[in-house]
Design goal:
Layout lengths: L9 H23 L5 H17 L14 E4 L5 H10 L3 E3 L5 E5 L3 H5 L29 H20 L11 E5 L1 H5 L1 H13 L4 E7 L2 E2 L2 E2 L8 H8 L2 E5 L5 H13 L5 E6 L22 H11 L13 H30 L1 H11 L17 E6 H15 L3 E5 L3 H4 L10 E2 L8 E3 L4 H13 L3 E7 L7 H10 L4 E5 L17 H6 L5 E3 L4 H13 L5 E4 L4 E4 L16 E4 L8 E5 L4 H13 L4 E5 L3 H6 L2 H7 L7 E8 L4 H4 L4 E5 L8 H7 L4 H15 L1
Parallel strand pairs: 1-4, 4-5, 5-9, 8-9, 11-13, 11-14, 12-13, 14-15, 15-17, 16-17, 20-21, 20-22, 22-23
Antiparallel strand pairs: 2-3, 6-7, 10-18, 19-21
Bound molecules: thiamine diphosphate (TPP) and magnesium ion.
Length: 693
C-alpha cells in the first residue's frame, strides 16, 4: 500500500490515518493477546479530530508548560494514546523534564504492547512514557486529575499572565467512558469543576452504552447530560463518533469559550468496523481473534494480512497537521516568553523553577521555632504554622481541605493568600468541599502541572481518597496529603473517626513518604524534607491533641527526622538494656517512661521513628546503631494497629498498640483504657528486660 500524499485526497488521508490508529490498536492487542481494542477503534476519529485540528500540543516538546493537556481517563483504551504518540512523533523526556531526540513511542514499542519493560504498558503510565500526562486505569481517576489540571491552568493564568502576555491559557481535554462517569470520584470532580466554573476543561464522553458486563443499562440509566447540566456544565452532543464535522463543531464550540466546563457526549459503537463484536458484551476487553481481525480490516478496506501497517503519507499527514500547528503554537509562545523574561524576570524565574520542581531561594525562611513546652502543642497546630511560613515563600504552593480546614489547619492565613473560587482564580486556598476522593485526584492533577499542592482531611478519611494517594506514589509525583486527628487521641468523635489500620496501610505503599512527627520540632523537620521531595508523595499524620515540645538541649536534635528514625534519648554510655520506640503522640510517652526507668536505675533508649520508609533507606550501619541487634528488650508504642512493629521489636519485644476499634470518650479515658500510659510502658519495658535475660 505505497500511497503518497499527492495521490490521495485529504478525505482519503483522513480515513487512512484514522484506520491506521484503529489497526495499530487491533494488531497490538492481538499480538499481546491481551487488552482492549474496542474503545480505540471507536474513538479513533474522536482522537484524530482533536489532535489534528484542535489540541495545542507540540510533539517536539511534550513538556512545554502551556501545552493543552490530553488525559485518557478510560485508560483501558491505552492503545489509542500510544498510537497517537507514535503517529504524531512525540519526543521522549528525561527525569529533568527535558525533551530528548528519541521518540516517546516507536512502532517497536507498539509491537511490544503490554510486555515487560516496554513503554507501552497495559494502562498509560506517567513518568514511563512521554506525552502521557497522568497514569490512568482505575476508572474515574483521570477525570479527577483533569479537574486539578484545569484548576492549575486557571491559577497559573491568574498568577502569571499580564496584559499582552497570555503565558498560560491551556485547555484540558479528557476522554472518558461510562465507567468513569459511574465512579463516585467522577461525580465529585464534575460537581467541583462546575462550581469552580472551569471553562478550560472539556470532557469527551464515549457514550457507547456498554461496559464490561454488557449493556450499560443493566446498571446505568440516568440522563448524563441532564446531570452535567445540573452541575453547571455546558453539554454538547455528537450523534456519531465517525462524523468529523460534528466533532469539529463541538471542539470548536468549546474553544470559542463558555464560562462553564464542557461535556461533549459522543455516541459511538465499541469495536467500530468489527463485524460481530460491537454491540455485544463479548471481547471488548479481549483481542478480536485472528479471523475477526481479518474481517475487520476488510471492512476498513485494509490489506487483511498486513500487520502494524503505517501507510505512506500517514506520518507526514500528522506532521502537516498537529506537528505544524503545534510547533507554531509553541514557537509563538516561546517568542512571547522571551519578551516576558525581559519584562517580568521574577515571574519568569518562578515558571522555570516550577518546571524543574525546584524551590525558590529562601523557601524556608521565617520558620517558627518551638521552645520546650511540657503542655505542648498539637502537631496539627505546629504544622499549620510551618505550612503558612513555607507557603509565604513559595508562591506556587496552594491547596486546601475537604471541608475541614478549621480542624486540619491547612488554611493559608497570610495577607494575599486568598480563596480560589470561580472568578477569583489567584487565590491559594482551595475549598474542595466534602469530596475527599476528588481532592486527592485534583491535588495530583495540580502537581502534574507543577503546582506544589496539598490536600487535608482527617486521617481516617484517607480511606475515601486512598486510590489517589496510591496513584501519586505510582506516578512518583510530590503530592502532599495532610491528615490530622490521627488516632484514638481525637477522643469523643469515637471509632468512626479514629484511625486504626491507616498507618499500616499507607506504610505498605511503595514510594510513599509517611511522617508521623512526635513534637512541634519534628513537624518542622518533616516539612523541610517533604518540601524537597521531587519524585515522591508525602503523607503527614498529625494529632488533634497537644503533645509536649521536647527539650532539645536535653534530648537529641529533631534533625534526626531526616534519617527516618533516630536516638532521641539514650542510656549512659550508649549502652541500653531496653529500647523504647514510638511515633507521633506516643514519643513523649516513651520519653516520660524513659525518665522513670532511669530513676529506677534501668538503662533505656528512646528511638523516635517518624518515617519508616526513610529509616529503611539508611545504611545497615546506621540502622544497627539505632537498633543494636544485641539489645533484644524492645518496646514499641503507637496508638494504631500493631501490624508491622514486629519488624522492629523482634520476638522478645513488646508491642503496645490497638487490637480493636477505638471508642467514644474523653481522651484521658481512652488512653487509660487502651494502655497508652507511662505505667504500661514502664511495665512492658521491665517485662521485656526480664524476658531477654
Ligand atoms: C475502578 C475500576 N474498576 C473497574 C475497572 C475494570 N474495568 C476496565 S474497563 C471497564 C469497563 C468500563 O466501561 P466503559 O467505561 O464504558 O468503557 P468501554 O468498555 O465502553 O470502553 C471496567 C469495569 C477499572 N479499570 N477501574
Ligand atoms: Mg462504555
Amino acid at each position: 500500500m505505497a500511497v503518497s500524499e499527492q495521490t490521495l485526497t485529504s478525505k482519503q488521508l483522513e480515513t487512512l490515518s484514522i484506520n491506521t490508529i484503529r489497526t495499530l490498536a487491533i494488531d497490538a492487542v492481538q499480538q499481546a493477546n491481551s487488552g482492549h481494542p474496542g474503545a480505540p477503534m471507536a474513538l479513533a476519529p474522536v482522537a484524530y479530530c482533536l489532535w489534528q485540528q484542535f489540541l495545542r500540543f507540540d510533539p517536539e516538546d511534550p513538556t512545554w508548560p502551556n501545552r493543552d493537556r490530553f488525559v485518557l481517563s478510560n485508560g483501558h483504551a491505552s492503545m489509542l494514546l500510544y498510537a497517537m504518540l507514535y503517529l504524531t512523533g512525540v519526543r521522549g523526556t528525561n527525569p529533568e523534564y527535558e525533551s530528548r531526540g528519541e521518540y516517546a513511542v516507536t512502532l517497536d514499542d507498539i509491537k511490544r504492547f503490554r510486555q515487560l519493560d516496554s513503554k507501552t504498558p497495559g494502562h498509560p503510565e506517567y513518568r514511563l512514557t512521554a506525552g502521557v500526562e497522568t497514569t490512568t486505569g482505575p476508572l474515574g481517576q483521570g477525570i479527577g486529575n483533569s479537574v486539578g489540571m484545569a484548576i492549575a491552568g486557571k491559577w497559573l493564568a491568574a498568577h502569571f499572565n499580564r496584559p499582552g502576555f497570555e503565558i498560560f491559557d491551556y485547555s484540558v481535554y479528557t476522554f472518558c467512558g461510562d465507567g468513569d462517569l459511574m465512579e463516585g470520584v467522577g461525580s465529585e470532580a464534575a460537581s467541583l469543576a462546575g462550581h469552580l466554573r472551569l471553562s478550560n476543561l472539556c470532557w469527551i464522553y464515549d457514550n457507547n452504552r456498554i461496559t464490561l458486563d454488557g449493556p450499560a443499562d443493566a446498571s446505568f440509566t440516568e440522563d448524563v447530560g441532564e446531570r452535567f447540566s445540573a452541575y453547571g456544565w455546558n453539554v454538547l452532543h455528537v450523534a456519531d463518533a465517525n462524523d468529523l464535522n460534528a466533532l469539529a463543531d463541538a471542539y470548536g464550540t468549546f474553544q470559542k469559550g463558555s464560562d462553564e466546563p464542557t461535556l461533549i457526549i459522543v455516541n459511538s459503537h465499541i469495536g467500530y468496523g468489527s463485524p460481530h463484536k460491537h454491540d455485544t458484551n463479548e471481547a471488548h476487553g479481549e483481542p478480536l481473534g485472528e479471523e475477526e481481525v481479518r474481517l475487520t480490516k476488510r471492512a476498513y478496506g485494509w490489506p487483511e494480512d498486513a500487520k502494524f501497517l503505517v501507510p505512506d503519507g500517514v506520518l507526514e499527514h500528522f506532521q502537516q497537521g498537529i506537528g505544524r500547528r503545534g510547533r507554531a503554537w509553541r514557537e509563538k509562545w516561546t517568542t512571547l516568553f522571551t519578551e516576558y523574561v525581559k519584562k517580568y524576570p521574577e515571574l519568569a524565574e518562578q515558571i522555570n523553577q516550577m518546571q524543574r520542581r525546584e524551590l525558590p531561594a529562601g523557601w524556608d525562611k521565617g520558620l517558627p521555632s518551638f521552645p520546650t513546652d511540657a503542655k505542648g502543642v498539637a502537631t496539627r497546630d505546629s504544622s499549620g504554622k510551618v505550612l503558612n511560613a513555607i507557603a509565604q515563600n513559595v508562591p506556587w504552593m496552594m491547596g486546601g481541605s475537604a471541608d475541614l480546614a478549621t480542624s486540619d489547619r491547612t488554611r493559608l492565613k497570610f495577607e494575599g493568600a486568598g480563596d480560589f473560587q470561580a472568578g477569583s482564580y489567584s487565590g491559594r486556598n482551595l475549598h474542595f468541599g466534602v469530596r475527599e476522593h476528588a481532592m486527592g485526584a485534583a491535588v495530583n492533577g495540580m502537581v502534574l502541572c507543577k503546582i506544589r499542592s496539598y490536600g487535608g482531611t482527617f486521617f481516617n478519611f484517607n480511606d475515601y481518597m486512598k486510590p489517589s494517594v496510591r496513584l501519586a506514589a505510582l506516578m512518583e509525583i510530590p503530592s502532599i496529603f495532610i491528615y490530622t486527628h490521627d488516632s484514638i487521641g481525637l477522643g469523643e468523635d469515637g471509632p468512626t473517626h479514629q484511625p486504626i489500620e491507616q498507618l499500616a496501610q499507607l506504610r505498605a505503599v511503595p514510594e510513599l513518604m509517611l511522617f508521623r512527627p512526635g513534637d512541634a520540632n519534628e513537624v518542622i523537620e518533616a516539612w523541610k524534607i517533604i518540601m524537597q521531595l521531587k519524585h515522591k508523595p508525602a503523607v503527614l499524620v498529625l494529632t488533634r491533641q497537644p503533645v509536649p515540645t521536647l527539650d532539645r538541649s536535653k534530648y537529641a536534635s529533631a534533625s534526626g527526622v531526616e534519617k527516618g528514625a533516630y536516638i532521641l534519648a539514650d542510656a549512659p554510655g550508649g549502652n541500653p538494656e531496653v529500647i523504647l520506640m514510638g511515633t507521633g503522640s506516643e514519643v513523649s510517652l516513651c520519653v516520660t517512661a524513659y525518665e522513670q526507668l532511669a530513676a529506677e536505675g534501668l538503662k533505656a533508649r528512646v528511638v523516635s521513628m517518624p518515617c519508616w520508609a526513610l529509616f529503611e533507606q539508611q545504611s545497615e550501619d546506621y540502622r544497627k546503631q539505632v537498633l543494636p541487634p544485641s539489645v533484644k528488650a524492645r518496646v514499641s508504642v503507637e496508638a494504631a494497629s500493631t501490624l508491622g512493629w514486629d519488624r522492629y521489636v523482634g520476638p522478645a519485644g513488646k508491642i503496645i498498640g490497638m487490637h480493636r476499634f477505638g471508642a467514644s470518650a474523653p481522651i484521658k479515658d481512652l488512653l487509660k483504657k487502651f494502655g497508652f500510659t507511662v505505667e504500661k510502658v514502664v511495665e512492658a519495658a521491665r517485662a521485656a528486660i526480664g524476658q531477654s535475660k
